[in-house]
């Protein structure tokens, strides 16, 4: 924060660094993903699969939670399910924490009770979510320092935003990436950020220029 009136100190380090491997995956990686899931369950670890919606939608090119549950329930034991409309969400999470192997959910699980044995998360349609939400979801794994994995499942052949996300676990760096990819503003409607764009300045990359300009005012 830049101001002549106040000084701000920032803590940029975490209490401990989690050992999380993050990776963008597509349909071609599904067999490998299944193997990783089986390996984690064999170690008495838990898996979280986050779906973009509860029920089928023709507007979204991904399976819903309801559509996908049959696949997992047929192949694995102790599969639990919850979402934002579930009145028993906390009870389900508590039961899963103690007894479950796989939890199928929506982004409602980005906050909630601690799941210490959770070591693998799959985020379906990851490109549809903001980096802050992805960071929050990824933070659900590795709570006890266990080696963990975050898989970003997408139909897109290449997504530089997701690839950049996999390279860092720093909340500050992710905030900078978010500003870089969304930009500081746009004069149009839709999914982009509102506000006027700077023509010759990138706030995510040119902070030093802002500081120099400010010092000369």
Automatic annotation (TrEMBL):
Has the keyword Isomerase been applied to this entry?
Answer: no
Gene3D superfamilies per the UniProt record, alphabetical: P-loop containing nucleotide triphosphate hydrolases
Which GO terms of the molecular function aspect are on file?
Answer: DNA helicase activity; hydrolase activity
The Gene Ontology biological process annotation of the record reads: DNA repair
Q: Which UniProt keywords apply?
A: ATP-binding, Helicase, Hydrolase, Nucleotide-binding
Domain Helicase C-terminal positions:
29-185
Q: What is its EC number?
A: 3.6.1.-
Transmembrane stretches, by residue range? none
Q: What is this protein called?
A: ATP-dependent DNA helicase RecG
Species, as recorded: hydrothermal vent metagenome
